Write the structure tokens for this entry.
Amino acid sequence: MSESTIKIGSGTVGQNEVRHFEFEAAEISGYPLRIPVTVVNGAKSGPTLCVTSGLHGGEYDSIEAALRLSNAVFPGRLSGKLIVLPIINIQSFLQKVPFTNPIDNVNMNRIFPGDPRGSVSRRMANKIFSEIVLRSNFLIDLHGGDLTESIQAHVMVKITGNKDIDDQSRKMAEAFDIPYVWELEVSGIPDYPGYPKGTVTYEAPSRGIPSVTAEAGERGKLEEESVKVLYEGMVNVMKQLRMIDGALSPTRKKTLLQHGAVVCPNIGGLFYPNVSCGDHVDIGTKLGVVKNLRGEVKETLSSKTKGVVLSLTPLMPVSTGEFVILIVEL
């Protein structure tokens, strides 16, 4: 097999070819679990860009953006290789389950690089990471608000401490016409232990692959504006990398976000938020209340930091300790 040919699972794609096929990511009781993959192998040499989406199967804007890209890039106009995995968490997608894989109840974007001897999600993550991500030069992971989540659109860079890799990731983030860039250190969020380790866009740059997470859309909606901003951002990245010709589309000036704080109630009940995603808050800002079934306020949630509301779970029922709001510092 020549260096210009790429083989992923059972799919072999020669130079100046495109193939849509299924990648066997794991097995369940002896039956293969397959996910869709598109490989575009350009007519000219260049970098390999991997696009992952659907790690959370209800984030439809990101899935649609990935599908559009997989059908829009032609090998004759491409320098390098494009690998698109539009729906990784296929069971979450099919069963309309937010955040986790319903087979083993695992959040797939918390377990990379995976484990070949683990549960289904961990085995999938290991095979995808070792056989696809680590063979790439750059990575874009697409997300948005899942079925029960509102978010403020943002691009995220997980800071590794490797200046060259971090700067390349920052440059990729600039290609998206999204107002906020969130740079998160490996120390993560105090009340959210372990994060960002285990996310594909932390584990990949930690191994020398510049990466970004781009998020747009909310609550399982399919909205053209969010699809478009993700799609056009990916095209801009490909222009940056000189994989395709053309001038970069202009993007708005970014506001830098850092650190982060999660807000969780100390008592279960009915949650009534006072803020929306994108709102700026100060220390002491009232974020919402938790009431009992008789309408009595049992807890008032207030902000302990100054920043912007980046994520919100605006559902009435909440449990003690449940993640309901994320605030990131301006």
User: Anything to note?
Assistant: The chain is about 20% helix and 35% strand. The chain has two domains: 6-253, 260-329. Residues 260-329 form a domain with the OB fold (Dihydrolipoamide Acetyltransferase, E2P) fold (CATH 2.40.50.100).
